[in-house]
Every structure is written in C-alpha cells, then in structure tokens.
UniProtKB/TrEMBL annotation:
<dbReference type="InterPro" id="IPR000719">
    <property type="entry name" value="Prot_kinase_dom"/>
</dbReference>
<dbReference type="InterPro" id="IPR011009">
    <property type="entry name" value="Kinase-like_dom_sf"/>
</dbReference>
<keyword id="KW-0547">Nucleotide-binding</keyword>
<keyword id="KW-0808">Transferase</keyword>
<dbReference type="GO" id="GO:0004674">
    <property type="term" value="F:protein serine/threonine kinase activity"/>
</dbReference>
<dbReference type="GO" id="GO:0005524">
    <property type="term" value="F:ATP binding"/>
</dbReference>
<dbReference type="Pfam" id="PF00069">
    <property type="entry name" value="Pkinase"/>
</dbReference>
<feature type="transmembrane region" description="Helical">
    <location>
        <begin position="293"/>
        <end position="313"/>
    </location>
</feature>
<keyword id="KW-0723">Serine/threonine-protein kinase</keyword>
<keyword id="KW-0812">Transmembrane</keyword>
<feature type="domain" description="Protein kinase">
    <location>
        <begin position="31"/>
        <end position="304"/>
    </location>
</feature>
<protein>
    <submittedName>
        <fullName>Serine/threonine protein kinase</fullName>
    </submittedName>
</protein>
<keyword id="KW-0472">Membrane</keyword>
<keyword id="KW-0418">Kinase</keyword>
<dbReference type="InterPro" id="IPR017441">
    <property type="entry name" value="Protein_kinase_ATP_BS"/>
</dbReference>
<keyword id="KW-0067">ATP-binding</keyword>
<keyword id="KW-1133">Transmembrane helix</keyword>
Length: 314
C-alpha cells in the first residue's frame, strides 16, 4: 500500500527531450516524443506521435518495473472485461521496454486524453461546472465498480476534464479488485486519514474520496485547516462541519453526507441521486440592477415629454 502526500512530487528523474525517438525493444513500436505531459510518483508521461502516422498517444515510462507492471495488469484486465454498453475503459495500446544508455526503461502507450485536471478546469470555468463533471465522473466510477474494481487513488489530478465537461480517469496504478487492500492513496482523499473506515477496496472507498474531492474543489482552505489537525482528532464530523459552513457546498450536502457514510446501495444510486440533486438546483441568473444614472435620465426624459405634451396641447 502506498501513501502519497498532497504536495507535488519532485523527482530526480529528468525528462527526455522532445524529438527523441522511443523504439520498443521487443515489439519495435516507434514513437516520437512531442512534449512532457506530466510527472508523478510512478513515472513520467509524454505526448508522443506514432512514427509514420499522425496518431497521438500518451506514453508512460515507469520508475519501477514492478509498479508499472501491476498498472499494466489492471489495464489489461479492464480491457478484457470491456463491455460494449459501458464507456471504453480500455485504452492500453502497447507495452514494451526502451533502452536509454545502459538502462532499460519499461513503458506503456495509452490513449491520449485531451483535457485538464479537475481543479484547473473548475478554476477557469467556475465551480458550477462541478455538477456536470461530477455526474460524468460518477458514471465512470459506476462502470468500474460494476466490473468489480475500485479506483482507489481518486483525486483532482487523476480526473481530466474536456472542454465540454466530459471526464476521463487517468492513472490506473491505484486500481484494486473489490475486497483487496487499496493499493495507493493520497492522504486528504483517504477514508483512513479521516478515521472514517478501513482501506479495504470497496465502492464506498471511492464515494468517500469523491466527496472529499468536491469539498476540496469548493472549500479548499477549510479542508486544509481540518486536515492539519492531529491525526487522532480528525473525523468525518470535520467534513460535515465544512459542508454546513461553506455556502457553496450546501446544495450538495445531503449527497455528500451519504457518500462519506457509505450510505448508497451501489454507484448507480449515487449517480441517480447526484443527477436529481443538480437538476433541482436553482439556476442562478445574474440580475443586473438598473444603474442610478439611467433611472434619473429616464425621469428627466419623462418630465420633458410631459412638458412638451402640455405645451403642445395648451
Ligand atoms: N492518458 C493520458 N493523457 C493525457 N495526459 C496524461 C495521461 N496519463 C497521464 N497524463 C498526465 O501525466 C501526469 C502523470 O501521470 P500519472 O498520474 O499516470 O503518473 P503517476 O506517476 O502515477 O502519478 P501519481 O503520482 O499522481 O500517481 C498526469 O497528471 C497527467 O497530467
């Protein structure tokens, strides 16, 4: 089980430059590095173009062969159970090793997800977009849970949102089978961190993380304060208090309370309740007040009009 802090991971691994041709040692696939997409605790991800084609992919080079292999195993298993009704969870394209100097670097190629992390998306577009992004995220989780999987390391950085609020989960390194131990987690979003339950992978573990992600997105500083308490005093009561205090969270509070107490039957129910909740939320129209000068101008024009009529008819 791996715990991650909330700070950005600094790594001693330097990235390889754009223009490098990555050639797979065993399968011979050739990918031209275009730019760095991101770097995490488990590896570095590049945007690559498949040589001789216009196809763009994301290529992840792992720091640790075993860690990367377990991520690949999950992706393969998801691919195997792919169900036409569900969203396309399978995006693994190729797995191989790359020789760089005297080192063998394991990598895999996956679909390139064009989007930005949830926090960046909401900062740019506004918190009200959480309604749609949240709904789409619950849909993805429901599909994963139906297959007997639990995402585990659900956090804003692992949720990429496209321009229209469509959502893709990335980083399947933390995915566990239902009933097993959660493989990887990040403290704020972890049920254990808030003394709210164990780290056995179940759908409720993801609901809990989802609820904390919402709290983080709409009440970051309050969450930070609560998280900085002594570990033994942290509890779900702190999260409930934030929901009651933060006006932006109030419309979501019934749903969030149910999620942190693991009160749904299954993720479809969580999805349906979220859908009902967002459809009932009042649409906030910005009411523009008439400026004072306009009111005075109107009164003067009215007065002049009345005078003109009086003078004409006299
Ligand atoms: N398929 C993808 N399409 C586009 N960008 C991606 C894709 N996969 C990963 N990224 C980018 O690369 C970054 C690092 O990827 P990833 O989260 O898989 O690495 P990690 O080492 O497992 O990170 P973490 O420490 O969060 O677990 C992501 O935050 C994201 O910005």
């Amino acid at each position: 089980m791996k715990e991650k802090g909330c700070s950005v991971t600094t790594s001693y691994r330097t990235s390889i430059p754009a223009g490098t041709l990555v050639t797979g040692r065993w399968r011979g696939g050739r990918y031209l590095v275009q730019r760095l997409l991101g770097q995490g605790a488990n590896g570095i991800v590049y945007l690559v173009q498949q040589a001789g084609t216009r196809n763009l992919y994301a290529l992840k080079m792992g720091y640790d062969a075993l860690d990367l292999q377990s991520e690949i195993n999950v992706l393969k298993a998801l691919q195997g159970q792919h169900n036409a009704e569900d969203r396309d969870l399978s995006y693994l394209v190729e797995v191989d090793d790359f020789t760089l100097g005297d080192r063998e670097i394991p990598f895999y190629v996956m679909r390139y997800v064009k989007g930005e992390p949830l926090s960046k998306f909401l900062t740019r577009r506004g918190g009200q977009w959480l309604d749609l992004a949240g709904l789409n995220l619950l849909k993805q989780l429901a599909a994963l849970h139906k297959g007997g999987w639990v995402f585990g390391d659900l956090k804003p950085d692992n949720v990429l949102v496209s321009a229209y609020g469509d959502v893709e989960l990335i980083d399947y390194g933390g995915v566990s089978q239902n009933g097993r131990s959660v493989k990887q987690f990040t403290e704020w979003y972890d049920r254990g961190f808030w003394n709210a339950g164990g780290r056995t992978a179940d759908a409720a573990y993801d609901w809990f993380s989802f609820a904390v992600v919402c709290i983080h997105m709409l009440a970051e500083s309050r969450l930070k304060t609560a998280a900085n308490q002594l570990p033994q005093t942290r509890s779900t009561a702190d999260l409930v208090q934030i929901m009651n205090q933060e006006p932006r969270l109030r419309p979501y509070s019934n749903w969030l309370k149910k999620a942190i107490s693991g009160g749904f039957e299954h993720t479809d129910e969580a999805y349906e309740m979220w859908k009902r909740m967002i459809s009932r939320k009042p649409v906030r129209h910005s009411v523009r007040r008439t400026p004072g000068w306009l009111k005075s101008a109107f009164a003067i024009s009215l007065f002049l009009l009345v005078c003109a009529i009086y003078l004409t008819l006299r």
